[in-house]
Amino acid sequence: MFERKMVITMCMKKALCVLLGVLMVFVSLSVAETKKLKEIGRYSLCRFKGEIPTPEVTKMLIKRYADEIKFGFDMVGYGDQYLDFLDEAERGPLEETTIPVGGTFMWMMFWSEGQVKVVEDLEWAGKESLPVYTFPVEENNKRYLFVMPKPCGNVALVEVEDYVAEAVCKITVTPNKVNVNEPVTVDMSESQNAQSMIIEVFDVNGNNIGTQTLSPDSPRWETRLVEPGRHTFKGKAINAEGKPSQNPCEAEVYVNFPPVCKLITSCFPCLNYVGRPVSLDASGSSDQDGEVVKADFEIRDGSGGIVDTYTDTEMPLVWETVFERPDTYEIRLVVTDDFGATSSPCTLDLEVTQKRLYFLVEAGPLLAKGTYTAYLFARGGFLYHLVPDRFSFSLAAGPAIPITNTGIFKSFFMANGILTLHADPVYIGAGLGFTGKDQEARESGLDFIGQTGVNLFQTYRNSGSLFFEIRVPAGNDRPFDELHKMILGFRFLF
Fold it and tell me: How many domains does the chain have?
């Protein structure tokens, strides 16, 4: 009897378990069954009556009911996509499309009994296609297609699909104007959805002069351009599927043309120009895309040593200088334009010589031995520098007129040929001369001449000096005691 009751009890339990399992399957199937949506507009989330007429009205409703929409996103577990949804609605323009009869929604939020509610797994079962505004949101390689049906203000999610975003290329180049061989930085760090980036560089003639591949971890590249003119940097961003970006992506850099120098001088060669001003002229220099604003001059002597330098920043960029000694000088010019580019140097070899041949006039008092009669003399001639500023040779001749004791002494003629050593401002010389008769009883003849003097002033054109000269008769037939002469004179060279 007891065993029979146990068997009945066990059978009842099994039957109950089977019944419960059947009920659970039925309930789950009932819950999972797609809900049919045959009409729309009664429970509008944005409380708008009638069909939403334009995308602009749609954007206005989204802003007005942003809090309710956010609540609905959080309720259904899509809070992370809320801000992207708002951004897409703001950016616009909104696309208009339709959901066909039988089309499904993953969920839809609506307004009922004074609160936001969400229903999942819906099928549109109306009589015709449902017009909607779409809001595609791409995030983390997912594409979310949100819609807002025109007949109401609800927000719904149609589908979520895996999505490899299109790469978007962005390139910036700094600076956008440079001089030749200055660094240029290319930056593609703002490109989107890129696995790699490619840069191509084109010169002024459209020739490809370089290609560089970058990565998101290393999106910058520094390069230098060596040819003046406009260069173009074209970029492409490559997404995870290897597909290049389609948007225009390029930037330009202008490489400044350096100026071209031109150097002329006021004399070439500069003969007899030691001590005279010489103009070094850079005003003929030019710049193709700007203006020349500075000239740097440099003078080197024959041994390569720097003699002088000068920088001119005021037009017409001319330097007037003086060469102090003869030599063949190298003149070097570099000009700079208004963007800081410098020219290749202009050079020329300028021969500068010193004036060697001068005319001279001399005058002053003279004492003639006998009774040391006073004379006034005047001579004219020339002086030639055998070695500039060191040795010279002069020839001069002229009369001497007595101013005392004129009864015995008479006017006479004299001439000189003197070799002089110069040690500025002093000089000393010696030579031969001819002296005519200063008395009828005396003979004319040759003299030995000694001379010393000091320069009072000196320019490249002329000089003036005081000198003392003694004339000693040559030969025994003309005694020193009777025929020597002493002169104090002023010499002018021109």
Answer: 4
